[in-house]
């Protein structure tokens, strides 16, 4: 194989990897609408908050975040939702660690962490956010709900 062909292959692979990375980066952190109408069963997922089981959803919106123990971006995302929860009384943030709960990862098709499901006041999934949620995405999601 000639040197020119080798260099062309190397640059081609680099260009392809760069394009894939840019596409992934553009899509992560954005909400994708979910039309399945699935309702979350809080007892099934075993959600807890401050050591107590979560038994109800937020009066406007609930952000259900799936995380893992080794995910550094999960802590950043949880902090962002915690601050939002403190300033917006109609919002509830629930974080579920799926490190040892592969059945939840499979059921909700969690391919990366954090993944956040946006729920209405009845617990119906309206959208999902893969990766760290962008502030504009959160603002858009909050604006899509009426009290």
Structure write-up:
It is a single chain. The protein is 41% helix and 22% strand. The relative contact order is 0.21. The model has no long low-confidence stretch (mean pLDDT 86). The protein has five helices and seven strands; from the N terminus they run αβαβββαβαββα. It is α+β, with helices and mostly antiparallel strands and 147 residues long. It starts with a helix and ends with a helix.
Can you summarize this structure?
The protein has 147 residues and is of the alpha+beta class. The protein is 41% helix and 22% strand.
Q: What is the CA-atom radius of gyration, in angstroms?
A: 19 Å
Strand pairing plus helix content: what structural class?
alpha+beta
Total of helices: 5
Number of extended strands: 7
Strand content: 15-25%
> Shape from CA axes?
elongated
**Largest sheet entry:** 5 strands, mixed
Mean pLDDT, as a whole number?
86
Low-pLDDT segments, ≥5 res: none
Strand numbers in spatial order across the main sheet: 1-7-6-4-5
Order of helices and strands: HEHEEEHEHEEH
What proportion of the residues is helical, as a percent range?
A: 40-55%
Q: Tell me the distance between the termini.
A: 66 Å
Would you spell out the secondary-structure blueprint of this structure?
Blueprint: H1 3-27, E1 31-33, H2 42-45, E2 48-49, E3 52-53, E4 61-67, H3 72-87, E5 91-97, H4 102-107, E6 115-119, E7 125-130, H5 135-143
Parallel strand pairs: 4-5
Antiparallel strand pairs: 1-7, 2-3, 4-6, 6-7
């Amino acid at each position: 194989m000639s040197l020119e062909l080798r260099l062309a292959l190397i640059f081609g692979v680099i260009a392809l990897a760069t394009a894939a990375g840019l596409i992934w980066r553009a899509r992560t952190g954005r909400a994708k609408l979910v039309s399945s109408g699935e309702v979350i069963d809080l007892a099934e997922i075993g959600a807890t908050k401050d050591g107590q089981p979560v038994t109800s959803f937020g009066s406007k919106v609930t952000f259900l975040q799936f995380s893992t123990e080794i995910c550094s971006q999960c802590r950043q995302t949880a902090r962002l939702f915690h601050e939002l929860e403190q300033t917006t009384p109609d919002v509830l943030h629930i974080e579920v660690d799926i490190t040892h709960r592969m059945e939840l990862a499979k059921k909700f098709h969690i391919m990366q962490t954090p993944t956040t499901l946006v729920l209405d006041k009845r617990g119906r999934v309206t959208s999902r956010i893969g990766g760290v949620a962008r502030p504009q995405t959160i603002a858009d999601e909050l604006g899509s709900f009426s009290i």
